[in-house]
Amino acid sequence: MNRKQTTPKYETAPKNMDTGCGSCAQKQKSDLWTVAKLAESMQMRGLDIGRNRLHTWLREHGFTDRSHWKGQNLPTRKALDAGFMVIDYVESWNKGRDWMITRPSIRITPLGRAYFTGLFVQEGRGL
Q1: How far is Cα of residue 88 from the mean position of the Cα atoms in its chain?
Q2: Residue 61 falls inside a structural domain
Q3: From the centroid of its chain, how far is CA 50?
Q4: 127 within a domain of the structure (yes/no)
C-alpha cells in the first residue's frame, strides 16, 4: 500500500531553535549567576576572592554602585550597556510586616563572567 505524504518534508523536520544571545540574557534565567556564585567559581579556579571582596572589586572598577537603592549594590549603566550584568527583581516575604517585597538584584551574564574573570587574572590578583 503506497500512501502519499500529506505534509511536506521541510515541515516535519525538527526545527533548530536558537537559544538567544547575550543581549537577550533576561530570557535565559539559568545562565545568569549571582555575584556569590561567580566568586565561588573563581575560587574553584584558584583565584583568591570571596563574595564581599568581589563586590568591592566591582565597585572600585565602576561596574556596580552602592548609592542607588538603599545602599544596595546595583550595576552601573556601563555594566548594563556592555551586557555584563542585568537587574533581576527578586520577591521575598517580609515576615515582620506580612507582605511581599520586590527588590533589585545583580545577575551576571555569561559574557560578564568571562570578562570579569579575565580582568581579575590580568590585574594579577589571581593565584
Answers
A1: 9
A2: yes
A3: 17
A4: no
Q: Which cell is 103 given?
A: 527588590
pLDDT digits (tens, 9 = 90+) for 41-58: 999 998 989 999 999 999
Domain count, the chain: 1
Q: Is the pLDDT of residue 38 over 80?
A: yes
Give the domain range for residue 61.
32-122
Close Cβ partners of 106 (under 8 Å, ≥ 6 residues apart): 34, 35, 64, 73, 74, 75, 85, 87, 88
User: Which of 23-27, 35-39, 83-87 is the least confident region?
Assistant: 23-27
**What type of residue sits at position 18?**
D
Distance CA 75, CA 9 (A): 48
3-state percent helix, strand, coil for the chain, nearest multiple of 5: 40, 25, 35
Q: Is residue 94 part of a domain?
A: yes
Nearest by Cα to 110 from 54, 38, 48: 38
87 domain-assigned: yes
- Sole residue written with cell 544571545: 21
